[in-house]
């Protein structure tokens, strides 16, 4: 049975630190097949942008600054996501045997594992078909439509994910709302008006009761482990690794240049 390293931090963390940890894990992948599973939270409402998105076209920066909403840029692609009251997951792997070497297939496999975890919570999730071209080519937020092989419950999106791949190494991370705030999502987005309705839901809404981060995480770990037939082994960073993460945060994700692309990438 394969063993995945589990990075589980129950304390909410800043957006720039969360993104630095994910990049550190991606950079840590070697030629030897290995996989990290990370589950985490955010200390305050945070907008994350896909790597190639133009801040001026998708985010109401003034609203975010006035209402204490952070803005970060991911290393992965995809669209604007508002992170709050959620479980965020990331899978970093160089295991071609488990995930194959294509973005599409590894994305589908991880989605199916997340479906297993959501089913264990009592939900009835399914993988979505391809979204309309207007969503694919436009600037609507991530939770406006499910992309192909993203996860829906009762016709609404419950998981939004993005991936980056270099050769056999990839990172995929995504948002699983415990509670949703469609009004705040609309407020932080510049895309408003006709066609901008948010089609999202959350674990608490679908179960008609509040659920905790710990409760949801336990079911997700169980479902992912069962689907991939793996065992997770808790992992913590040593002091040198913590310094590396802080260095990535300081030099990249906490900077205005990276977030707003004010200099060459």
CATH architecture tag: 2-Layer Sandwich
Q: With helices defined by DSSP (H or I, 4 residues minimum), what is the helix count?
A: 11
**Portion in strands:** 15-25%
Total E-strand runs = 11
The name of the CATH topology is BirA Bifunctional Protein, domain 2
Low-confidence segments, ≥5 residues, pLDDT <50? 133-137
The 3D shape can be described as: globular
**Which percent range fits the helix content?**
25-40%
H/E order of the elements? Answer: EHEEHHEEEHHEHEEEHHHEHH
Provide the CATH top-level class: Alpha Beta
In which order are the strands of the major sheet placed?
A: 7-8-9-10-6-2-1-11
Radius of gyration, whole Å: 17 Å
Instruction: Report, as a whole number of angstroms, the end-to-end distance.
Output: 41 Å
What summary fits the major beta sheet? 8 strands, mixed
Protein structure class? alpha/beta
What is the count of structural domains?
A: 1
CATH homologous superfamily annotation? Bira Bifunctional Protein, Domain 2
Mean pLDDT: 90
Structural write-up:
With 265 residues, the protein is α/β, with parallel strands linked by helices. The protein has a single domain, classed as 2-Layer Sandwich (BirA Bifunctional Protein, domain 2), CATH 3.30.930. The chain is 37% helix and 24% strand. It contains eleven helices and eleven strands. The chain has helices at residues 15-28, 55-58, 61-66, 96-99, 103-120, 133-137, 182-188, 203-207, 213-228, 239-253, 256-260; strands at residues 2-8, 35-40, 46-49, 70-73, 81-83, 86-93, 125-127, 151-153, 156-166, 169-177, 230-234. The strands form two sheets. Strands 7-8-9-10-6-2-1-11 form an eight-stranded mixed β-sheet, sandwiched between helices. A three-stranded mixed β-sheet has the order 4-3-5, with helices on both faces. The termini are far apart. 41% of the residues are buried. The model is unreliable at 133-137 (pLDDT under 50).
């Amino acid at each position: 049975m394969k063993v995945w390293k589990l990075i589980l931090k129950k304390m909410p963390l800043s957006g720039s630190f969360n993104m630095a940890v994910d990049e550190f894990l991606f950079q840590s992948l070697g030629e030897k097949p290995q996989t990290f599973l990370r589950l985490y939270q955010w200390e305050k409402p945070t907008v994350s942008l896909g790597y190639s998105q133009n801040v001026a076209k998708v985010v109401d920066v003034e609203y975010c600054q006035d209402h204490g909403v952070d803005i970060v840029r991911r290393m992965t692609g995809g669209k604007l996501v508002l992170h709050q009251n959620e479980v965020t997951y990331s899978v970093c792997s160089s295991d071609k045997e488990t995930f194959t070497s294509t973005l599409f297939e590894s994305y589908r496999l991880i989605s199916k594992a997340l479906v297993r975890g959501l089913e264990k919570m009592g939900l009835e999730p399914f993988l979505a078909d391809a979204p309309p071209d207007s969503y694919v080519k436009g600037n609507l937020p991530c939770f406006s439509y499910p992309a192909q092989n993203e996860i829906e419950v009762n016709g609404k999106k419950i998981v939004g994910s993005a991936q980056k791949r270099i050769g056999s190494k990839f990172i995929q991370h995504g948002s699983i709302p415990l509670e949703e705030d469609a009004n705040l999502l609309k407020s932080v987005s510049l895309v408003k008006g006709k066609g901008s309705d948010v089609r999202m839901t959350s674990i608490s809404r679908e179960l008609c009761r509040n659920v905790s981060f710990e409760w949801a995480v336990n079911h997700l770990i169980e479902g992912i482990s069962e689907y991939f037939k793996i065992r997770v082994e808790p992992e913590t960073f040593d002091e040198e690794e913590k310094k590396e993460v802080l260095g990535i945060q300081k030099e990249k994700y906490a900077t205005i240049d990276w977030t707003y692309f004010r200099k060459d990438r």
